[in-house]
Design goal:
This protein is mainly α. The protein has one domain (2-289): Orthogonal Bundle (Farnesyl Diphosphate Synthase). Helix content is 72%, strand content 1%. The protein has 16 helices and two strands. It has helices at residues 2-22, 31-41, 48-60, 68-85, 102-105, 108-129, 132-146, 151-161, 168-178, 180-192, 198-225, 228-231, 237-240, 246-250, 252-269, 278-289; strands at 95-96, 99-100. Strands 1-2 form a two-stranded antiparallel sheet. Helix 4 (68-85) runs antiparallel to helix 6 (108-129), helix 8 (151-161) packs antiparallel against helix 9 and helix 11 (198-225) packs parallel to helix 16 (278-289). It is globular and about 45 Å long. The two termini are 16 Å apart.
């Protein structure tokens, strides 16, 4: 596990450097929006999505550095989604990653505009920098993963489910979109940059489906019994906002059991990659036991 932590730490350093380089320089006007973009994107996040993109590329090809381009775009989209999710009109959260949320640090208007700008930057970054053989596919699939039928649609359904009893199948559909879509794209994008065969891309997509559910279940559990200092935010917000969660529907122990089942399914999905999937398997195992 120490080797895994070191590998992931090194990847985070490289990803953070690439994100910094991709952002507009702070002296460039409008400074307020650019400061908010830096604040939202460069916080102490886990970088799980860009890491998955890089590792998927490493597992399927010989030029994984090419995957840094979609990896950065993915984190920009993720940061945008967090900035907007935290707004008073949605989840109304005051803290994120151990510090005030973007709209608390700046203003609601600047946070909203910074999120919009991160979306534009994500697509521009791929269009300007990705190799011609995969740029169009990367842009198209990112638009689909972050659009109204996937990430944004998941947030809509999540908001509509607040305070209402919902079936487990509906909850799974919400998080297949809200959490899983960008995770699946991260894995596919990494493989696409390596011109991987479609059967391997689909294997990574299936892995991402189960990993997304696993990630959401552990997220729901941590909101009940996690350490606020490690999480960088107070716990209990799901219950306070009457959110539909796996523990709320299934009970805490059954949710833990379901998380283990999703891990098994995720690892099984990687079988077409054989030993090349070892690092992805270790990442999935760490998601199950994570504390932040």
């Amino acid at each position: 596990m120490a080797d895994l932590d070191s590998t992931l730490s090194n990847l985070r350093v490289r990803i953070d450097a690439a994100l910094m380089e991709a952002l507009p320089p702070l002296p460039t006007p409008p400074r307020s929006v650019h400061e908010a973009m830096h604040y939202a994107l460069l916080g102490a996040g886990k970088r799980i999505r860009p890491i998955l993109c890089m590792v998927a590329a490493q597992s399927t090809g010989n030029h994984p550095e090419t995957a840094m381009i979609p990896a950065c775009a993915i984190e920009m989209i993720h940061a945008f989604s967090l900035v907007h999710d935290d707004l008073p009109c949605m989840d109304d959260d005051d803290f994120r990653r151990g510090r005030p949320t973007c709209h608390k640090q700046f203003s609601e208007a600047i946070a909203l505009l910074a999120g919009d700008a991160l979306v534009a930057l994500a697509f521009s970054h791929i269009a300007q920098n990705a190799p011609a053989f995969c740029a169009l596919r990367l842009v198209r699939e990112l638009a689909e993963a972050s659009g109204s039928e996937e990430l944004i649609g998941g947030q809509v359904f999540d908001l509509e489910a607040e305070g209402k009893p919902i079936a487990l199948q509906h909850l799974q559909d919400i998080h297949r979109r809200k959490t899983g879509a960008l995770i699946r794209y991260s894995l596919r994008a990494g493989a696409v940059t390596q011109e991987a065969p479609e059967d391997e891309i689909m294997a990574l997509d299936r892995f991402g489906t189960h990993l997304g559910i696993l990630f959401q279940i552990t997220d729901d559990i941590l909101d009940i019994e996690g350490d606020p200092e490690l999480l960088g935010k107070p716990i209990g917000s799901d219950q306070n906002n009457q959110k539909a969660t796996y523990p709320a529907i299934m009970g805490l122990e059954e949710a833990r059991h379901r998380a283990k089942t999703e891990l098994i399914c995720a690892v099984d999905a990687l079988s077409p990659l054989g030993k090349r999937a070892e690092l992805l398997t270790q990442i999935a195992e760490q998601v199950l036991t994570r504390r932040r």
